[in-house]
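Bug #77: duplicate submission created two jobs. Keeping one. Sequence:
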Amino acid sequence: MRKPTNQQIFDLINAIAPFETQEDFDNAGFLIGSPHAEVDNILVALDATPAVVQEALDKGAQLLVVHHPLMFHAVKTLRQDTYEGALLGQILRSGLSVISAHTNLDQTYLSGGAVIGRKLGLNDLRKADPFIYLGELPQPISARMLGTQIGEVLGQRLRCYGKPDVVIRTLAIAGGAYDEGYLAAREAGAQAYLTGEVRHHNALAAAESGFVLFDGGHYHTEVGMMHELALYLQNTLNTLQYHVGVHASAAISGARGCTL
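Kept job's structure:
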C-alpha cells in the first residue's frame, strides 16, 4: 500500500495555497518533523492544542496540519512551565509532525470567507482583496435578518455594529482578525462585512459611515475551512491512490468563547 510522505502532503497544500504567498509576519510552513517520514493518518485542525495533539494520537496520526502556526514569535526556550513550551514538548515527545497553512490558505477558495460565502449561497463570489470574498445575497434583506442567517451558519450569535434595518445586497467576508478590511469591502460595493474580530475604533468608523460590521468570532469564522482542507487532501490522496486517512478535528477550542 502506497503511503505519502510529509513532504508530499506539504506539496499538495502548496499547490493550492503557495507558502511563498504568506504574509511577512507569518510562520506558515513545515514546522516540526522529517519531510521524508511516511504518513498513515493526518489530523487537520484550526489550532494545535493539547486536546488536538491527544486526538491526533488517538486517531493514529503522524501528521498534524493546522491553520494557526506554532512558534509564531521567536522561541528561545522550551520551558515546560509555559503554555507553548509544554505544548511543543508534548508534540516532540509524541513524534508528531506539524505543518501550518495560515495566511497562504486565507487567500484561497478554501479560506474562511470563501467557505462561509458558499454556505450562505452568495452569488458571483469574488475577491475584494487577497483576503476578502464578497458576493450578492439571493435577495436583499435587512442587517438584522442577515445576522440571524449568518449566526445559523456559524452556530453562534453575532455582534452587529451599525443600523439593523440597513438593507444588505452585497456581503463581504474575511475569516479571523481582519476588521480593517471593511474599507476594501465597502470600496468593492458591499453594504456589510463579516469578520472574526472587530475593534472598537473600526466599529465606530464603519457604523458612522452607514456600513454594517458583523463580528462572528475568530474561531467560528475559520474552523469551517479546515474541514474543507481535510476534504481536499483526502480526495486528492484518493485520486493519487495513496492509502491514508485524513480527519478533521472534533476538538473544540476554548478560544471559541462561551455564552454566559
